[in-house]
């Protein structure tokens, strides 16, 4: 006779570590409240087409994705966007400029997770407010005629904002994630995939191959309901070299990446991130990296189709607190606007010289 006690039917088997589940606005309602205007739709459509043409070599301009490491102050971000939009228009013959507008921050352990997750910067996690704030900022920047780029971290977030995003990225920590590769396979914009944090480019190349294929996976629809998503695949992806244990923006690294892409049957689209492992997260060093790339582009190097820079109004970084400097990053240190302005001019001059 068994002595094993019968299970207690009133003992919960799941949600034992869930404190609460709060209501979340649906993507459809947010898009209804903050619709995409024809003007913004034009910016997004033209921007996606232009970025794809640059990556494919059908446009000899240089793709430049530049902006704050993360957006924490929408007012300062729109100030930056106005300056960048004016400069991008001046240099439009040489540069295809996209503003880096990141709202989600992957953390190695813990920390502020970005404007969508915690818009009050105070641990209140008002995600509904964060989603509204993020979407409105993307609409306002795009209304200036300036395309925007976002890193996609949470697989649900794109339902709220992806229709107004021109260029997307998948970070080094998620480049090997099947969830994110599936997500990219259904996205309507070009997407860059970074090399792994240790510098391995195979993760990015495998990610491109996976994202180009059709997938079927579980997700949410515009009403926020669970559904089965079937994608056709995204062929408009590229590798982002962001360094790792050592920098990987040298001409030999770029050439080796292009060779590996061709060997995998993929287009040799290579974008260099001047920050992160390529600068040792030193915002001053970023300018050195960009300067070296500009010299190579001016000399006729064609392997680099674009680059990324972390930049805000003020140089450096700061901790969250009551006396923060307006326009200074609260995550990775960024270059100042004045330095960025000079570097954009340097890159445009390099493109002109390389055409000769």
TrEMBL record:
Its EC number is 2.5.1.54. The keyword Magnesium does not apply. One of its GO terms (molecular function) is 3-deoxy-7-phosphoheptulonate synthase activity. GO terms for biological process: amino acid biosynthetic process; aromatic amino acid family biosynthetic process; chorismate biosynthetic process. InterPro entries: Aldolase_TIM (IPR013785), DAHP1/KDSA (IPR006218), DAHP_synth_1 (IPR006219). Residues 53-343 form the DAHP synthetase I/KDSA domain. Gene3D superfamilies: Aldolase class I (3.20.20.70). One of its GO terms (cellular component) is cytoplasm. It holds the Pfam family DAHP_synth_1. It catalyses: D-erythrose 4-phosphate + phosphoenolpyruvate + H2O = 7-phospho-2-dehydro-3-deoxy-D-arabino-heptonate + phosphate. NCBIfam families: aroFGH, PRK12755.1. Stereospecific condensation of phosphoenolpyruvate (PEP) and D-erythrose-4-phosphate (E4P) giving rise to 3-deoxy-D-arabino-heptulosonate-7-phosphate (DAHP). This is Phospho-2-dehydro-3-deoxyheptonate aldolase.
């Amino acid at each position: 006779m068994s002595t094993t006690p019968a299970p207690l039917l009133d003992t919960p088997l799941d949600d034992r570590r869930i404190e609460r589940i709060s209501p979340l606005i649906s993507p459809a309602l947010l898009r209804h409240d903050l619709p995409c205007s024809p003007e913004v739709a034009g910016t997004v459509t033209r921007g996606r087409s232009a970025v794809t043409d640059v990556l494919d070599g059908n446009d000899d301009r240089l793709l430049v994705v530049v902006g704050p490491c993360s957006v924490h102050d929408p007012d300062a971000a729109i100030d930056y966007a106005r300056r960048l939009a004016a400069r991008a228009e001046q240099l439009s013959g040489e540069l295809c400029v996209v503003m880096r507008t990141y709202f989600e921050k992957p953390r190695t352990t813990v920390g502020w997770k970005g404007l969508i997750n915690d818009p009050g910067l105070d641990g209140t996690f008002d995600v509904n407010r964060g989603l509204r704030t993020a979407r409105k900022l993307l609409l306002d920047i795009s209304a200036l005629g300036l395309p925007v780029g976002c890193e996609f971290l949470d697989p649900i977030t794109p339902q709220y904002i992806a229709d107004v995003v021109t260029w997307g990225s998948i970070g080094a920590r998620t480049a090997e994630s099947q969830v994110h590769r599936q997500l990219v396979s259904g996205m309507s914009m070009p997407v860059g995939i970074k090399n792994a944090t240790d510098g391995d480019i195979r993760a990015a190349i495998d990610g491109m191959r996976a994202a180009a294929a059709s997938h079927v996976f579980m997700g949410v629809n515009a009403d926020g309901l669970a559904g089965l998503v079937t994608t056709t695949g995204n062929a408009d992806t590229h590798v982002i070299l962001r360094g790792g244990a050592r920098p990987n923006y040298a001409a030999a690294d770029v050439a080796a990446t292009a060779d590996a892409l061709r060997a995998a049957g993929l287009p040799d689209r290579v974008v260099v991130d001047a920050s992160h492992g390529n600068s040792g997260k030193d915002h001053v060093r970023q300018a050195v990296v960009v300067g070296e790339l500009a010299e190579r582009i001016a000399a006729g190097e064609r392997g680099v189709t674009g680059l990324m820079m972390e930049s805000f109004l003020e140089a450096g970084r700061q901790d969250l607190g009551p006396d923060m400097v307006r326009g200074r990053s609260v995550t990775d240190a960024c270059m100042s606007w004045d330095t960025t302005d000079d570097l954009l001019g340097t890159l445009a001059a390099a493109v002109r010289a390389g055409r000769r």
